[in-house]
Amino acid sequence: MKTIWAPWRMVYIRHKRQKGCFFCQEPSQRKDEKNLILHQGERAFVMMNKFPYTNGHLMVVPRRHCLEMEQLSDEEGEELFHLLQTSVRALRASLGPQGFNIGLNLGKVSGAGEEHLHFHIVPRWAGDTNFMPVLAEAKIIPESLDETYRKLDSAFRTILGRKADGKGGKKR
Question: Which of 13, 86, 105, 150 could in theory staple to 110 by disulfide, Cβ–Cβ 3.0 to 4.6 A?
Answer without folding.
Answer: 105
